[in-house]
Amino acid sequence: MQERISKSELETKEFAKNFASKLGRGDVIVLSGDLGAGKTKFVEGILEYFGMQEEISSPTFTIVNEYHKDKIDIYHFDLYRLKDVYEFENIGGEEYFNKGICIFEWGELIEDILPNDYIKITIEKGNTDDERKLIIETLGAKYEELSF
Ligand SMILES: Nc1ncnc2c1ncn2[C@@H]1O[C@H](COP(=O)(O)OP(=O)(O)O)[C@@H](O)[C@H]1O
Ligand SMILES: [Mg+2]
Question: In angstroms, what is the C-alpha Rg of the chain?
Fold first, then answer.
C-alpha cells in the first residue's frame, strides 16, 4: 500500500498522468471514495496523458464512456447508479476487462467479479477543501513490483 497527499486538483491530475504512463491494455483500476472526492478528476488526468479528452461530460448518467486513440482503448465506468453486480453482468461488463484499460468509479460494487489483478485507489478528503489522501493498493501478482 502506498499513500500520497494531494494539495490540489492539479496535483491529483499530475499524479494520475504519471500513473497512466504505466498502464496498458488489460489493466483494471478501481477508484473508490465519496462523491466529490476526486475520482472523475483522476480519470481526467489519465485521459489527458493519452491525449484523449480534457474534461469528462456527465459521467454519472451513463455506466460506461469509451475513449479510443491510436492503439489505446479506455473504458471509464461510473457504477454509482448500479443496483448490484448482476446488473453489471447483464450489460456484459466482464467482457470489457481485457479490451483495454478499464477504470471503475465505485468499483467496489463489483469487487466479487473483478479479475485477480487490479489496482485500487481510494481517495479521501483531507483537512482542507483542496487536500486529498490517495491510497494506492495493488491486488494480485501482476502489480507487485509496480511503484508510483
Ligand atoms: N486535491 C484535489 N484532488 C481532486 N479534486 C479536488 C482536489 N481539491 C479539490 N478538488 C475538487 O473536488 C471535486 C472532485 O470532483 P469529482 O472528481 O467529480 O469527484 P468524484 O468523481 O469523486 O465524485 C472537483 O470539484 C475538484 O475541483
Ligand atoms: Mg465521479
Answer: 14
Which ligand has an atom closest to residue 8 CA? 1
Across the chain, which has 148 residues, the per-10-residue mean pLDDT values are 96 98 96 97 97 71 87 94 94 94 96 96 97 97 86
Q: Which of 68, 67, 71, 72 is nearest to 56 (CA)?
A: 67
Q: Which domain holds residue 132?
A: 2-140
Query: From the CB of 38, is ligand 1 less than 6 Å away?
Result: yes
Predicted confidence at residue 63, as pLDDT, reads 87
Q: How many domains does the chain have?
A: 1
Contact partners, residue 133, CB within 8 Å, separation at least 6: 3, 4, 5, 6, 123, 124, 126
Residue 145 lies in a domain: no
